[in-house]
Design a protein that fits this description.
four-stranded parallel sheet, 2 domains, single chain
Amino acid sequence: MRVGLFTTCLVDTTFPQVGDSVIRVLRGLDVDVEVPRSQTCCGQMHINSGYRSMALPLIRNQVRSFAGYDVVVAPSASCVGSVRHQYGDIARSSGDDSLVNEVAELASRTYELSEFLVDVLGVTNVGAYFPHRVTYHPTCHSLRLLRVGDRPLQLLREVEAIELVELTNAASCCGFGGTFSVKNADVSGAMLEDKLTCVRQSGADVLTAADSSCLMQMGGGLSRARDVARTLHLAEILASRR
């Protein structure tokens, strides 16, 4: 199986350790994973901001960059959600029938990391060791758009020495929402504070999620408040060893 890693913008520019962790996890399972150099932004930000025509060249590039791979894997439910649920509409609006077919084919083989591990590889124990108290935030896109369910939790429960604790009101949004946090800063900040209150009540040392964007929002809040809890992407925990 030839796998292409869709790194996403945030991982590429801000959280490269997440991409490295995905590669370590997959190669540890003998998966042949590559990182296409031609990939760029998937266009989700443009689509969500109303710049649909500007997203079209990015969608075409995504199709070209990952042509020939059996599977495309990304450490982001948000970006995978865009490929699977937004690309088709943009392609149809372009009037390019070949692009419509190419986008549908790409969407059918694009997976968020936990989906790929649990559903495609049939693996829940990746050999991780992480002796810390951890709580999990199910991001909005993973929960409501991709419906990954408890797949991330299945993986976390198999991590050796982890102490997994429940997050109260886990399904509530952290307030990021891309440009929502910029355009509606006060509302976003209030939502963030509600989320951080729940994190503090959990007593966790580490807050994890499957989207770097949400972790950036929550990690920033924890850092500004000088909280003891830190944020780590799910892939970073799964890549941890003795």
